[in-house]
Amino acid sequence: MITFLVTFLVALMVSLVLTLVVRNRALAWGWVDQANSSRKVHVRPIPRLGGIAIVSGFFAPLCALFFVDSGVGYLFRWHQELVWGLFTGGVAIATLGLYDDLQGAGARLKFSVQFAVAIALYMLGFRVELIANPFGAALPLGALSLPFTLLWIVGVINAINLIDGLDGLAGGVAFFGVGTNFILSLVRGDVVMCLLMAALAGAILGFLVFNFNPASIFMGDTGSMFLGFVLAAVSLKTSTKSGTAVAMLVPIMALGLPIMDTLLAMVRRSVLGRPMFSADKEHIHHRLMSRMVLSHRSAVLVLYGLCALFTLTALGLNFANSAQSAMLLVGMGIVIFVLMRKLGYLDLHRASTVGETRRKNIRLRTLVTELSRAVRKAQSLPEVWEAVRPLAEALDVAHLELRLQHQREGLTEGIVFETQRPAGSALPLDVHIEVKEAEVSLGWLHLSWRDGRSQVSRDEELALELVSDAVAERAASLLAIAQAEPGRVVSLRR
Questions:
Q1: Could you report how far apart the first and last alpha carbons of the chain are, in Å?
Q2: pLDDT tens-digit profile, the chain (494 residues)
Q3: Residue spans of alpha helices (H) in 395-457
Q4: Does 3.30.450.40 match the CATH number of domain 351-488?
Q5: How far apart are CA 116 and CA 248, in angstroms?
Q6: Does 24 appear as a known binding residue?
Q7: Residue 202's Cα: distance from chain center in Å?
Q8: CA atoms of 294 and 291, how far apart (whole Å)
């Protein structure tokens, strides 16, 4: 136990100090998360890259074991496949997250790296070979072992990433998962797994000192994807040492909250015709705040309580027989059902509108794809405007304006395009979408509705953000040309 405590304290101190250093450097260098979207819950720029401290805190005491001449150090080095898998895979995932935090990574790059790492882990022996059946014998996967393992690793990585929406939430959720694995490993006498979990627990708590509400730093994708990777990999090793009656049920239950939130997001977006990788404010933590009128901190504490319940259920499954496991699962199922009803996920009154919402969103997605393609092909700013102009009719906008600005000879010049439509006479609802490229503001899209609406739907907002991104990308290129050849730009308003 002394070794575990020392490992925990070393990881805690490294994470604590590095979080403070990274926070100060991120502020100085402008590496902050801007509060520029309605789905953001913070109202001021917050430094990101706190995941660097988590990764360093985790690896610091483990690297020290390579130089310690002791029984524990020898035992750690003897598990070569486990060590290689966690170190190389962890570095790869953390590097991907760091690149995403600094430059932005598309879904294709993320999934390519994640699946490549998952395949490497499978080759090293991290795999799912049995599916639990509390009512009978476990089911061997056979040839399905590879796809199931890949889906588990990639799924958990992205589940922790998705749950990272409130101060301290992802770290707290991961800590409960770590606690479950530590207790199970301690009971089985698995010293190496206990060391790994002690190191990760210390790294998480050192970061949470600065990340709990009100947070002064975020972990970013560097931290959330790394935590998901380690938990996914360790859970596979833990499940292989469980009784076959609960194989994979224990890790699934230990990570119940992020898995449940991810599945709900996938179903919600599929049913409503939304892009699978789009962001929204319909996650469990968002609904706790909006439907149950909880504060930021209260919502996180409630979810901590739910994670504790999942942890107790996971531990119970590990020690229960088949009948007791079935009772635990039924009880947890009832709790989840009640929670879903409270949060409005099972609201039958909204079922009648799902079909129309889906058709509307599909039409909107098609429009955005066509507009974005036309914007990126535009050879001048007026052509960019002509590509954007159909938004007015598609969204039933009374006034649509695109305003761009650029520097010339030390002065800021504005270029404005606008169109008016007869679309109602109610009080206007105005929306501004900033046009930004690489954190540089190029202008904004301004839309005004007069049809009596009080807010813009998240689907419409997402569509506008995507169009704005396309406009920013093309306008930045055209304005750069204009600065090199000033005669090509003419201020106009039409």
A1: 74
A2: 788 899 999 999 999 999 999 998 888 777 676 555 544 454 467 888 899 999 999 999 998 888 777 777 777 778 788 888 999 999 999 999 999 988 888 889 999 999 999 999 999 988 888 776 666 666 778 888 899 999 999 999 999 999 988 889 999 999 999 999 999 989 888 888 899 999 999 999 999 999 998 888 999 999 999 999 999 999 888 766 554 445 577 888 888 999 999 999 888 888 888 777 777 778 899 899 988 888 889 999 999 999 999 999 999 988 887 788 889 989 999 999 999 988 888 876 776 778 888 888 888 888 889 999 999 999 988 899 999 998 888 888 899 999 887 665 555 567 888 888 887 778 888 888 888 876 677 888 889 998 888 888 878 888 888 888 899 888 888 877 655 555 544 444 43
A3: none
A4: yes
A5: 22
A6: no
A7: 22
A8: 8
Residue type, 394: A
Taking CA 159 as the corner, what is the angle to CA 84 and CA 91, rounded to the nearest 5 degrees? 25
Give the whole-angstrom CA distance, residue 172 versus residue 370: 42
Q: Give 327's contacts (C-beta < 8 A, 6+ positions apart).
A: none
DSSP 316-339: HHHH--HHHHHHHHHHHHHHHHHH
Q: How far apart are CA 195 and CA 427, in angstroms?
A: 62
For residue 161, say whether it is annotated as part of any ligand binding site.
yes
Side by side, which strands form the sheet with 429-437?
A: 411-420, 399-408, 440-449, 429-437
Report the amino acid identity of residue 332: M
CB-neighbour burial class of residue 348 (10 A; exposed 0-12, middle 13-18, buried 19+): exposed
- Up-side HSE of residue 430: CA atoms within 13 Å toward CB? 4
How many other C-beta atoms are found inside a 10 Å radius of the C-beta of residue 258? 29
E strands within 11-102?
32-33, 46-47
Enumerate the domain spans of the chain: 2-342, 351-488
Residue position matching structure tokens 């929306």: 431
Taking the model in full, what pTM does it have?
0.83
Single out the residue of 249, 208, 253, 224 nearest to residue 159, CA to CA: 224
49 φ, ψ to 5°? 75, 15
User: What are the beta bridge partners of residue 402?
Assistant: 417, 445
Q: Are strands 46-47 and 139-140 parallel, antiparallel or unpaired?
A: unpaired
**DSSP of 98-167, one letter per residue?**
HHHHHT---HHHHHHHHHHHHHHHHHTT----EE--TTSSPEE-GGGHHHHHHHHHHHHHHHHHHHTTST
State the number of CA atoms in the 13 A half-sphere of 136 facing the CB.
2
| Calpha distance 304→421 (Å, rounded) | 50
Look-up: residue for tokens 């199970």? 184
Q: Tell me if residue 405 falls in helix, strand or coil.
A: strand
Find the length of the chain. 494
Q: Please name the amino acid found at residue 306.
A: L
| SS3 assignment, position 344 | coil
